[in-house]
Design brief:
Elements: H1 5-15, H2 21-27, H3 30-35, E1 40-45, E2 51-54, H4 56-61, E3 75-79, E4 84-90, H5 99-108, E5 115-122, H6 125-131, E6 139-143, E7 150-153
Parallel strand pairs: 4-5, 5-6
Antiparallel strand pairs: 1-2, 1-3, 3-4, 6-7
């Protein structure tokens, strides 16, 4: 896998397809820095769902179906020590973990060998508030304005912030 994955993913998404929304997708990689220390990026898609980082073989080994019809999330991270698979939807219009989307993902990933962590990522509170009532219970929300904080919708996996001391 890639060393310095946070920096590489952040750089790739900030430069791939130019700045703007590509930059925002790369900003989502701060989740690795704060909440998924040691995780590897298995999928990092840009705003038109073209993979910038795509570890197809590893996804298949974990039981994640890889189809031509799209992936289950915009960003997929894997924390091998905890055996957690982070499914991150980059929260723009209709791109967050809703109740319906969570049920679809559970069915799609029923053969996945990892514990599933559902995260909706938003650039700011205003964008989050537009969709807050639609966020699925049992998931988490990360907001780029305050990257060191996570909102837990009663998720069974309480994500702890990494200690920097």
């Amino acid at each position: 896998m890639i060393s310095g994955i946070y920096d590489k993913a952040y750089y790739d998404m900030g430069t791939y397809r130019g700045a703007g929304k590509g930059y925002w997708y790369g900003k989502c990689c701060e989740i690795i820095k704060f909440y998924a220390a040691g995780a590897i990026v298995l999928l990092l898609s840009d705003i038109i769902n073209e993979p910038v980082i795509f570890e197809r073989e590893r996804l298949e080994q974990l039981g994640v179906p890889v189809t031509i019809y799209g992936m289950p999330a915009d960003i997929i991270l894997y924390q091998e020590v905890k055996k957690w698979l982070y499914l991150i939807r980059v929260g723009t219009s209709f791109r967050f973990i809703s109740h319906r989307r969570r049920r679809e993902l559970e069915k799609l990933l029923e053969r996945c060998s990892a514990e599933l962590i559902y995260i909706s990522a938003f650039p700011n509170f205003a964008e989050y508030l537009r969709y807050a009532i639609h966020i699925a219970w049992g998931s988490h929300v990360w907001i780029a304005e305050v990257p060191e904080h996570m909102i837990h919708y009663n998720g069974n996996m309480l994500l702890e912030m990494r200690s920097f001391s």
